């Protein structure tokens, strides 16, 4: 039996050395964008943002931040909490947020499970999980973030009717995610026709990883589920 309560759900956290400015921004800007998990969460998580927002979405594993920043710019009245433990992706995104003066983004640079356990019940209007590490070897399946324990976490923090959007170019992980999501009593698959999972949501900015996958001949799949 796979133990989903232990171990990390991500691989290496560091890659190439950061440029001096990136390292400085992580030290000076990121603390102001990061939710303080050492303190109780606000009763209304919209208070996490310095600007007024009407709803809050979560993006777990935002990579280079392309999709997160696009959505934050497109929907300024929506607050986005982005999670990314990989230092390079976080540094790039912090720099972009600082340069553009983005107000409706919070960033968390550790395991998403910790953040999910901190967030209040029924506080999130939607979740994106785009191109997570598929951990293809069977002995690493316990590291796949889509699992019963984390789906319980998602279900607890999501509002009734909230959307969960998952994208992957790895067929085995798409099958895995679909099976686990459909088996969970808190979620229902919204697809009514093949195009609903073969075509991305609109509007859609894509990600750098997605473009690379398509160029290499791997076709992404887009699953959407509703919190019952």
Give the biggest beta sheet.
7 strands, mixed
Return the average pLDDT rounded to an integer: 92
The Rg value, from CA coordinates, equals 17 Å
What share of residues is helical? 25-40%
Structural class: alpha/beta
Shape: globular
Which architecture per CATH?
3-Layer(aba) Sandwich
Q: How large is the share of residues in beta strands? A: 15-25%
Name of the level-1 CATH class: Alpha Beta
Low-confidence stretches: 1-12
Pattern of helices and strands: HHEHEHEHEHEHEHHE
In CATH terms, what is the fold-level topology?
A: Rossmann fold
The tally of helices reads 9
Q: What is the fold's blueprint, element by element?
A:
Layout: H1 20-28, H2 30-33, E1 55-60, H3 66-74, E2 78-83, H4 87-100, E3 105-108, H5 112-118, E4 124-130, H6 148-157, E5 158-168, H7 171-183, E6 187-189, H8 195-198, H9 208-215, E7 221-227
Parallel strand pairs: 1-2, 1-4, 2-3, 4-5
Antiparallel strand pairs: 5-7, 6-7
Helix pairs in contact: 1-4
GO molecular function, one term: tRNA (guanine(46)-N7)-methyltransferase activity
Protein name: tRNA (guanine-N(7)-)-methyltransferase
Family: Belongs to the class I-like SAM-binding methyltransferase superfamily. TrmB family.
Plain-language structure description:
The chain has one domain (35-227): 3-Layer(aba) Sandwich (Rossmann fold), CATH 3.40.50. 34% of the residues lie in helices and 19% in strands. The protein is built from 9 helices and 7 strands. The protein has helices spanning 20-28, 30-33, 66-74, 87-100, 112-118, 148-157, 171-183, 195-198, 208-215, and strands spanning 55-60, 78-83, 105-108, 124-130, 158-168, 187-189, 221-227. Strand 2 (78-83), helix 4 (87-100) and strand 3 (105-108) form a beta-alpha-beta unit. The two termini are 28 Å apart.
């Amino acid at each position: 039996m796979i133990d989903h309560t232990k171990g990390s759900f991500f691989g290496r956290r560091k890659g190439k050395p950061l440029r001096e400015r990136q390292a400085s921004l992580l030290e000076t800007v990121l603390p102001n964008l990061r939710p303080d998990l050492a303190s109780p969460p606000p009763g209304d998580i919209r208070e996490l943002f310095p600007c007024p927002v009407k709803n809050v979405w979560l993006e777990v594993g935002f990579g280079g931040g392309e999709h997160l920043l696009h959505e934050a710019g497109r929907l300024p009245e929506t607050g986005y909490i982005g999670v990314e433990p990989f230092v390079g992706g976080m540094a790039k995104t912090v720099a972009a947020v600082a340069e553009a003066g983005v107000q409706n983004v919070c960033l968390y640079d550790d395991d998403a499970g910790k953040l999910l356990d901190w967030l209040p019940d029924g506080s999130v209007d939607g979740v994106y999980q785009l191109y997570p590490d598929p951990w293809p070897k069977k002995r690493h399946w316990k590291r796949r973030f889509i699992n019963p324990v984390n789906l319980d976490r998602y279900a607890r923090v999501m509002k009734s009717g909230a959307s969960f959007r998952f994208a992957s170019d790895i067929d085995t992980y798409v099958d895995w995610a679909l099976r686990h999501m459909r088996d969970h009593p808190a979620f229902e698959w919204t697809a009514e026709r093949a195009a609903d999972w073969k075509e991305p949501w609109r509007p859609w900015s894509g990600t750098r990883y997605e473009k690379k996958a398509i160029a290499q001949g791997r076709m992404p799949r887009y699953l959407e589920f509703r919190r019952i």
